[in-house]
Design brief:
The complex is a heterodimer of chains A (490) and B (453). Chain A is mostly helical and 490 residues long. Chain A is 64% helix and 1% strand. Chain A has one domain. Chain A has a two-stranded antiparallel ribbon with strand order 1-2. Chain B has four domains: 119 residues, NAD(P)-binding Rossmann-like Domain (Rossmann fold, 3-Layer(aba) Sandwich), CATH 3.40.50; 83 residues, 2-Layer Sandwich (Alpha-Beta Plaits), CATH 3.30.70; 120 residues, Rossmann fold, CATH 3.40.50.720; 96 residues, Alpha-Beta Plaits (2-Layer Sandwich). Chain B is 33% helix and 25% strand. Chain B contains 15 helices and 22 strands. Classes of the chains: A mainly alpha (490), B alpha/beta (453). Chains A and B meet through α8 and α9 of A and β2 and α2 of B.
Amino acid sequence: MNYGSIRRFLGIVLRFEAAFLLLPAITGLVYRETAGLSYLAAAFLCVVVGTFLSFYRADRGPFYTKEGFAGVALSWIVLSMFGALPFVFCGDIPSYTDALFETISGFTTTGASILTDVGALSHASLFWRSFTHWVGGMGVIVFILAIMPLTGGYNMHLMRAESPGPSVGKLVPKIRETAMILYKIYFGITVIEIILLLLAGMPLFDSLCLTFGTAGTGGFAVRSSGFADYTVLQQAIITVFMILFGVNFNAYYFLLLGKTWEARKEAFRMSEVKGYLGIIAFCILTITWSIRGFYDNILLAFHHAAFQVGSIITTTGYATADFNLWPQYSRSLLVLIMFIGACAGSTGGGIKVSRILLLVKSVKQEVLHFIHPRAVSTIKLDGKSVDKETVRGVNVYLAAYALIFVVSLLIITMFDDQDLETVFTAVAATLNNIGPGLAAVGPMSNYYHLLPVTKYVLMFDMLAGRLELFPMLILFVPAIWKPGRNRKRR
Amino acid sequence: MRIIIVGGGKVGKALVRQLSREGHDIAVIDEKSRVITEITDNYDVLGLVGNGASYSVQKEAGVEDTDLLIAVTNADEVNLLCCLVAKKAGGCSTIARVRNPVYNSEIGFIKQELGLSLTVNPEYAAATEAARILRFPSAIKIDTFARGRAEILKFRIPEGSPLVNCTLMDISKRTGADVLVCAVQRGSHVEIPNGHFVLKAHDFISFLATPDNARAFFDGIRIKSHRVRDCMIVGGGTICYYLAQQLISNGIKVKIIEKDLDRCEELSVLLPDATIINGDATNQDVLLEEGIADYESFVSLTGIDEENVFLSLYARSLSDSKIITKIDRINFDDVIDSLNLGSIMHPKLITAEYILRYVRAKQNSIGSNVESLYSLIPDQVEALEFMIRKDSPVLGIPLSEIRVKDNVLIACITRGGRIIIPNGHSVIEPDDSVIVVTSHTGWQDIGDILKGE
């Protein structure tokens, strides 16, 4: 592996993080909190270390797939390590392990929290927590690609490593413009949500933070009371936007930038979007029916069902109701859609609807093969045949996913004596970047009481889930750590 | 510009590489998904798997907003259909690679009726380049500028030449010819030299001169510069046919050695004035019997790169003849350069450069002022010919006072058909065409040579 170019890249990432850290510092200034200074200090540290990494023995040598994958995984780890510092500096989260958990949970848009009382945090820390969701949602590296004119063709390796979905394509020929378009759409919808929430009477700070959480499908709350303080209208706005951010952004691209009606209609023909909306509709309706007895009227039941389904399938993890207390059918269904997740090319996590569609189709193909052993068929998605590599990738993804799941489960139960429901849903909720699970890690509890070893396993799961497994797994292959010693300098 | 390239073979890839570096928006279409993956992994372009002649695939690639479609698949018919569809769907300019000699003979009609902007025949283009070199064998490579009034010639300094240990300032004195050295390649190091640069044996130098001065220069350093009298060609493929045709029409005697008897018979019908030998040229006896050592030039054009390299090295060991070696593979050119194979000819790159020249000329009409561009040393040094407009920032200033970037050489000014090799007092005027040699890439305007303020 080419350490020089990775070091240079990590330096760039850190200097971007310094810029991000200035925002909570400003928040601290507005609220006249001393915590703002901790953020300033962390930003300064990032600039120093980042500059050092970029200029000390850094080179622009070859950058292939392995460097791209390892570079992305390492930059997420480094981002989280530095992003956790201000929490410790200002004393909001004294333990570094906890602070790291919180930051990783933020950047990976998981929203699993170790905080017992969110309300006790400084505004600067609350803002930073939610802002990490926004940056992590579309991706830090995609952001860098949109802003920085990185030369060379290796950018695609970076983009592919960070963007979710079975096959990552571009909207327009240039990667920088693609990243720019994605961020413009992302920024636009974010602004619309903030405005709507303000119109619905939510305070500015809350609307900003909650919108960041919705946009990145993260899920950190800003008040100890969770969502109880907000009106039904405000909650409903969030419901709609959660579901919108789970849609494949290509659909918005077709919708907004399509020149003809024909081109715009393309957005509604995407089978992934249709499948996604179909699953949501089915879940909301059946859960409404199942919980109708818990609420005063069926409309309120529908409201809560919609909020929870939208929150879980997009892997946001906000909760207006303690679904831990709901009937078994609703709880099981919610756990199931944790795994399905949002669309590829959205900010959501999980296995992704398009992978599920491909899996269902390949199962169907396999069954048909038993009936007609000589039949030749290809799997099609949106009228285009999907090449075998992609289908194989999806199958391998599922296998790797199950493997990580089982290993995490085993390690945790080995050290930490929790009941199966807690551990199972904790792993599911972190690997799928959702946040709250069931039982002891349910929506009204938190992850504070878990052992450090459990927390580290869950941190790995969060990163693996956000980066779609392989960038994290590649770090465990010894061969990639081999430095090129005999290379001639040219 | 927005460009669609259909076909991701060697030519397609070379085009993608150069055009994406120049900042164009490129979509590549190929039927093989592996080809597309390889291209999109390495270059910042949009890749599409599918049949490039299909309307829906072209639409997906954005043909409606595209300025240019380049069809370089290996099938002529597909290329022509691609262009026809694109023309009807998007109204863009189109370039097709057409290599079948049958179509080539009626290319005027095809071009006119299908509304093609340009057609390229890779074999014909390669043959033309080889013929040009044989007409002027002292140089390895010749590029013409200003409609043939100026040439940039590449040449390797032999051992014991009067040029060895000569500074560039003294060249005119020693040779009595007015030439300007634009670039020197020594090993893998490339330099755009100043007057104090000292030449060594085995340096590759690229110099600019008028055709008369170039001849005088070679006479001055006692290198024969007359065209070759005879030529031995190994491998009787299409390039060989076109080359032999051009050489014979120039009065050069041609002998062709080809393995396949049927092909020999075809060639004997097509080229009645050439001597056709049926034999395996990898057999030394065949070459010796046909008098390889007595020929003034030797061209190896077999379909296998390794064979061509061997044949050329063998010819080099027997005589001082002019040697041209065809190499299809584009990589490893630094290794090949070190082998002393004479002129290396990459047919795919010649095709790509031919197309690039058109793309630049087209860009000329939408903002850029690059008239023509030649790559003197691939990926390292380019020569660009700019048209000077009336609002250009370099007008009226003596060259010695213009603050230009490093590694930039203003090599030649053409004014009203007259070639001026400039010095510090020369001034650029409107409607001049100026040749700039540089190691920078992607320039659009003469203003780009200036140092940023």
